[in-house]
Batch of 2 targets.
Target 1
Amino acid sequence: MHKDLNFHLYKIAIVQELSDWDIANRRVSSEQLLKMLNDDGVINTVLITDEAHFHLSGYMNKENYHYWAPENPQELHQHPLHRERLTVCCGIESFGVFGTYFFEDNEGAAVTVTSKCYVAMQCNFCEPELTRLGIDLSSLWFQQEGATAHTARASVSVLRETFPQHVISRGGNVPWPVGSPDLSACDYILWRVLKSRVFISKPRTITELKQSIREEIAAIREQMTPQVMENFGVRVKQYLRNGGRHLSDVLFKT
C-alpha cells in the first residue's frame, strides 16, 4: 500500500459533536481569553487543571491485538471487573506542573470525584500548595473543565473566594469552551506525556504507580511549560479564526 500506491496510515480522530450553541459559546470564550493575552502572546498567569485516570493493569485494545499462528491458540486475557486505578489532579502553568493530588479514601483506594471531594482538594491542597510556592492568588487565573463536580454551587463558591474575579469555568468569570480538549494543555500535552512514561517502569502496585507518576512529573523540563502556555495562546487565536470549530490543523499533523 505504501510502496506501490504511496498510501499512508491514518487514524480517525474521535471528537465531541458540537452544536451551533457550542460553537457560538467557543467563539465567545475565545474572545474573552484573547483579551487575557499579554504582549508576548502568552496567557497571563493562568493555571490549567484537569483530572485523569491511571489504571494499574494498563489497557488492551482487543481490536488491534492479533495472534499469527497455524492454529487458533484460544488464548484468553482476563482482567478484574473493577481494575485498580488512581484518579490524579494536576495543573500546568508557566511556572511548571502543579500537583499531584490523588482522589482517594483513607485506605488509599480511588474514589469518584464528587463536589465534596473537589472542595476538599481545593481547601486542603490547592490553596495551601499555591501559597507555599509563593504564587499570588489574587492575580492567578484558575481554569477548570466543565465536570459536574467542578461546576457545582459549592465548588464554584470556593473557587470564587480563593481566586476572586479570576475563575475560568462554566459559572465563573470567563466561560470555558465546551468540548475543547484541543485547547486544554492537560489534554493535549500533559496526560499524553505522563501516560507514555509512567508505565515504562512497569509498576505492580498502587504505591509504585503513585511514585512513578510523581517522578515523571518532577522530570518534566521547566523549559517546557512556558512553551506550552505560549502554544495555548496560539490555539486561542486559531479558535477564533476557525469560527469556534474543531482545530483540524492541530488534530491532523503531517
Target 2
Amino acid sequence: MQHAIPVETLGARGPAMAAAIASCVHCGFCLPTCPTYVTSGEEPHSPRGRIFLMKDVLEGSISLEAALAPIDSCLGCQACVTACPSGVEYGDLITAYRTHAEERRRRPPAERAKRALIAQTLPYPRRFRAAARLARLAPKVGPLRPMLDLLPDALPKARPLPELHEAQGERRARVALLAGCAQQVLDPDIGWATLRVLARNGVETVIPRAQGCCGSLALHAGNASQAARLARRNLEAFPDDVDAVIVNAAGCGSGMRDYGLLFAGEPEEDRARALADRVVDVSAFLDELGLVAPPAAEPLRVAYHDACHLAHAQGVREAPQRLLHAAGHEVVVPAEWELCCGSAGTYNVEQPERAAELGRRKAENLRATGADVVAAGNIGCLAQIRQHLELPVRHTVQILDRAYAGVDVR
C-alpha cells in the first residue's frame, strides 16, 4: 500500500520536512560522519535510518513510539549535512520533526519534571546561577548529575555586560551582541573577551538590555512554543541599525539563524528572517572585517575543535583557524574533527552514557595532536571537553584577547 506524507496536517513546517525526506537518496555518505552510527554501528541510529523512520511515522505506516529511541539519540549535530551530496536539509527536518513528536508523545512524569526544570533554569542566567549554587549543597546523584558534572569547581563571579562598548580608534563597524544565557554563568569572560577583541578591531558593540535566551535549547528539545516566546523577545530587542548581530556561541548562532523556520507561517516570519540574515559568528565577522594583527607573542600549538553548529550548521571552519594563525599560533585539526564531542543542548542529561563516550573520544583525538591549548567556539563544547581533557580549553576570542594583552593563554 502506498503512503504519502500528509503535508497539510503538519503546518507551515510540513513542506520543508517533506522536501528534506524526498531529497535523501539513501547513498550512505552520512554514515561515517554520524557520531551515533559510528559508536553504535546500527542503521536506525544514522541519518539515513532516521529519515526512513520519520517518513514511516509521518505516513502512518509505523507508530510514533516505534521511532522514539533512534530519534532521541540524534545529537542534531548536522555533520550529515556537511557530508551529504544531495543537499538534504537534515537540520531543518530533525528540528521540525522533534516539535511534531513532542506535541504527541507521552513522557513519564519524572521525565517531564526533569525537562521542565531544565527549561525553566538554563535559559535564565540568574536562575541557573542560583540552581548551580544549590546543587553544590546536594550530592551529585539523580538524573541531573551529568549536567552538574559539567559545572566548574567554582562558578566565576557574575560580570554583567554593559549596554555599550566603544570601539578603539577609528570605528570600522557597529554591531549588536547576543549576551547568551548559560555562558554568562559558566564562563562570563568569553563575553568580555569578545567586547575587547571587537573594540581592538574598531568595532562598537551594543548589548541590548531587553534581550534574552535565543531559544536554541528549547527548540533542540522540541519545545517550539517556548523557543518562539524567547525568540520574540529578541525580535523586539535587537536594533536594525547595526552592521551585524554577533554571536559567540555556535549553538546560539545556529538557533538564531533558524528563526525563519521557527516562525514559518507566523506573522513574525519576515522580521524573523531579516534578523536571522544579520546573525554572524564573531569569528566569521572578524575574518571578513580583517583582523588587526596582535603583537608578536610566544607561538603555541593550538588544537582547533570544530563546534558542530559552527562547522556543519553555519559552514564556518576556516575563519577561526585564520584568526588563530594571525595571532601567531600553529593550528592543528584533530582526527575525526567532524564528530560531535557529545555536547548538544541537553544531550548530557538525555543521553549521558553516549555523551560521555563521545566526550572521551574527542578528548583522545585532541590530546593526540600534542597541542598546548584547545580552541573552540561554543560554550557547550568547552564545558564538555574540559570534563574529559587536562589541557587548557579556551574560546577562540579568549586566545585573541590574551594575544592583544600579551598574556599567556594557558
